Structure to design on (151 residues):
């Protein structure tokens, strides 16, 4: 830690929330709200697979009110997951990653069509992460005494 001593804090990290997976998204949101509003968690980092909309806009609109009660009071950082980005057809038509060739598909990935054609566009339009990387695809940020790298 550089500079003056920083106080410890708690924060939330989770992924795979999606409103299409039964009651688990509602349970996650209720727990997130409790952690932020009652126990003082200072931020949330959702590491991907946000709403599971898979090309269905009303699913995105159903998801936002779940996290709004705590995302409105503490930072809510997101990363893009395979259910928002993964694509196989016509990747250069919609892909906002700016990656050349077949889009952002690292060799270690197991890619299919998990986004059902979203290609990252709905998340790219809804979320703006730090501009020290490539928007939602990779970035880093400091919060308190924690440095987070999102890949």
């Amino acid at each position: 830690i550089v500079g003056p001593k920083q106080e410890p804090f708690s924060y939330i990290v989770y992924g795979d929330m999606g409103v299409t997976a039964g009651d688990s998204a509602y349970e996650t949101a209720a727990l997130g709200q409790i952690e932020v509003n009652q126990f003082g968690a200072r931020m949330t980092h959702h590491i991907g697979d946000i709403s599971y909309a898979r090309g269905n806009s009303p699913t995105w609109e159903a998801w936002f009110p779940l996290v709004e009660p705590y995302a409105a009071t503490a930072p809510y950082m997101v990363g893009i997951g395979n259910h928002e980005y993964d694509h196989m057809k016509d990747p250069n038509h919609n892909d906002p990653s700016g990656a050349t060739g077949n889009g952002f598909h690292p060799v270690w990935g197991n890619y299919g069509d998990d986004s059902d054609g979203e290609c990252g566009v709905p998340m790219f339009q809804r979320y703006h992460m730090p501009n020290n990387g490539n928007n939602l695809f990779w970035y880093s940020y400091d919060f308190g005494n924690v440095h987070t790298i999102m890949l």
Remarks:
- The chain has a mean pLDDT of 82.
- DSSP finds five helices and five strands in the chain.
- The radius of gyration is 16 Å.
- The longest strand covers residues 139-143.
